[in-house]
TrEMBL record, chain A:
Stated name of the protein: Electron transfer flavoprotein subunit beta
Keywords: Electron transport, Transport
Domain named Electron transfer flavoprotein alpha/beta-subunit N-terminal: residues: 23-211
UniProt xrefs under SUPFAM superfamilies: Adenine nucleotide alpha hydrolases-like
Domain of life: Bacteria
PANTHER family: ELECTRON TRANSFER FLAVOPROTEIN BETA-SUBUNIT, ELECTRON TRANSFER FLAVOPROTEIN SUBUNIT BETA
Pfam families for this protein: ETF
Length: 249, 313
């Protein structure tokens, strides 16, 4: 069974984000970039499916500027078989990303598409669900367990209040949550080998998708900062303040 | 303008988050209809009809909606919502699941997790785990929007008398089936809507020690939460996680115990009205956002807190 994994290049999660002084966005100049953490989990899950003999081929796809190839190479080093880079320097919003991925799905016909539940830059949590809707597939969002059985996949989902398991007809879309797995690190020999794995390059136009963003960002600001309050000496003082000053108990 | 709000519920009760979403709808302005989709959910429809500012309630009561499967809800809401200017739902795990499907089926963008309404087409939302706040404008004819419930004060849940009509629209996408669910059974309030939240971090050392927090929480009628560090360490389940990758809370009182205050945790709780931090490391970043900080060993402070609370409550 073929598995398609979509990965996104984002600001490294350890980097402190700074808003540009002109409020047009976040400063990405000379900032360390990396694979979105939820996408790393998606790659890892695909690799584990291959190790179990469930997946036969893992295709990894990324959308964005030339530099995205670094993240595709990372996924190849982790165990993906080949890469597809949809190259564009334009802003790509969730709906367009879903349309681009739909074209790839139609070409590649994977049985399972795995994506991160959200990217840590735009925090939208949309692309997987949109792709599933556009391709008429079922979706197992916020997955903490993925079990392929015959022509179905059982996905255990992290939902408000606990866990919920759904059975989806294949092909299906899965989006990953944090506890699905713990991604491995790429070994040096695998990083070297990844350089020789095939990587196709194409444009949105090659896939017949016109980029037409529907949302415009008017401004980006730093969040209102909270002032530090007072230190209390002991628990008795704390409870007194909560009762008589803040009046919250 | 006409706004369709999708009710959040568990087939028996209307969740408070719906009242928060109705507040966001009110801020946009226009006629507000509510769609209740579920199974044997008539009582939820009645409850929604009593909420402030609701024009009409539609109830789609069918087994295919019983477990809120995104594939079926997506088709239903896209069908019912296509004649509205706005479709709103709470940004909980149900809304996050089906709303992007609605947007894709209608070929429009979705605006996720809004914190404020600027105008009918312009909304404010957090990006980069709340480290930046974006103002975005939608050019689509139908605005599909998920709402961060804690960012809006709820409308009144009583006093309204909207008409309730049954909706005979059955959409079974046939793509997914419910298998089972394991919901944490607890008499404590729901984390996302609790007035008081007591959370523990890595400093709790193990899951067993969370019992201390539970005892304090029960005295105050509070919910119990955790930081991602505590969840990653396996102390407690993920549904207790407060933070950008977990639940966003904004209670009247948030007590952070043994939590250092990583950015991703602060993103989930810094809108709380009063924040208390108990940590033995006085340099912990949590103290920079806390209204009341207590530098102490939590294993001494928490039992003392329980005793002091017993005196005053």
């Amino acid at each position: 069974m073929k598995v398609l994994v979509a990965v996104k290049r984002v600001i490294d999660y350890n980097v402190k984000v700074r808003v540009k002084p002109d409020n047009t966005g976040v400063d990405l100049a000379n900032v360390k970039m990396a694979m979105n953490p939820f996408c790393e989990i998606a790659v890892e899950e695909a690799v584990r499916l291959k190790e179990k003999g469930v997946a036969s081929e893992i295709v990894v796809v990324s959308i964005g500027p030339k530099a995205c190839q670094e993240q595709i190479r990372t996924a190849l080093a982790l165990g993906a078989d080949r890469g597809i880079h949809i190259e564009t320097d334009e802003e790509v919003q969730s709906l367009e990303a879903a349309k681009l991925l739909k074209s790839v799905v139609e070409k590649e016909e994977p049985k399972l598409v795995i994506l991160g539940k959200q990217s840590i830059d735009s925090d939208n949590n949309q692309t997987g669900q949109m792709l599933a809707a556009l391709t008429g597939m079922g979706q197992g969002t916020f997955a903490s367990e993925v079990v392929v059985e015959g022509d179905k996949v059982n996905v255990t989902r992290e939902v408000d209040g606990g866990l919920m398991t759904v059975a989806l007809n294949l092909p299906a879309v899965v989006t990953t949550d944090l506890r699905l797995n713990e991604p491995r690190y790429a070994s040096l020999p695998n990083i070297m080998k990844a350089k020789k794995k095939p990587l196709d390059n194409m444009s949105p136009a090659d896939l017949g998708v016109e980029l037409a963003p529907r949302l415009s960002t008017l401004k980006v600001e730093a969040p209102a900062s909270r002032q530090a309050g007072v230190k209390v000496a002991d628990v008795a003082e704390l409870v007194d303040k909560l009762k008589n000053e803040a009046k919250v108990i | 303008m006409s706004i369709l709000v999708i009710a959040e519920h568990d087939n028996s009760e209307l969740k408070q988050a719906t009242l928060n979403v109705l507040a966001a709808a009110k801020a946009i302005g226009g006629d507000i209809d509510v769609l209740v989709a579920g199974e044997n959910c008539g009582a939820v429809g009645e409850a929604a009809a009593k909420a402030e500012g609701v024009n009409k309630v539609m109830v789609a009561d069918n087994a295919v909606y019983g477990h809120f499967l995104g594939e079926n809800l997506g088709e239903l809401v896209a069908e019912v919502g296509k004649n509205y200017s706005h479709i709103l739902a709470a940004a909980g795990t149900v809304g996050k699941d089906f709303m992007p499907r609605v947007a894709a089926l209608l070929d429009v963008a979705q605006v996720s997790d809004i914190m404020r309404v600027e105008s009918e087409d312009t909304f404010v939302r957090p990006i980069y785990a709340g480290n930046a706040i974006a103002t975005v404008k939608s050019t689509d004819s139908i605005k599909v929007v998920t709402v961060r419930p804690t960012a809006f004060d709820p409308v009144a849940g009583e006093g309204g008398s909207a008409a309730v009509e049954q909706l005979d629209v059955v959409k079974d996408a046939g793509l997914s089936q419910f298998v089972n669910e394991e919901l944490a059974k607890s008499d404590r309030p729901d984390l996302a809507s609790a007035g008081i939240v007591v959370s523990g971090g890595r400093g709790m050392q193990n899951g067993e020690n969370f019992k201390m927090l539970e005892q304090v929480a029960d005295l105050m009628g509070a919910a119990v939460g955790a930081s991602r560090a505590a969840v990653d360490a396996g102390f407690v389940p993920n549904d207790m996680q407060v933070g950008q990758t977990g639940k966003i809370v904004a209670p009247q009182l948030y007590i952070a115990v043994g939590i250092s205050g990583a950015i991703q945790h602060l993103a989930g709780m810094s809108d709380s009205k009063v924040i208390v931090a108990i940590n033995k490391d006085e340099e912990a970043p949590i103290f920079q956002v806390a209204d009341y900080g207590l530098v102490a060993d939590l294993f001494e402070a928490v039992p003392q807190l329980e005793e002091e609370l017993k005196k005053v409550l």
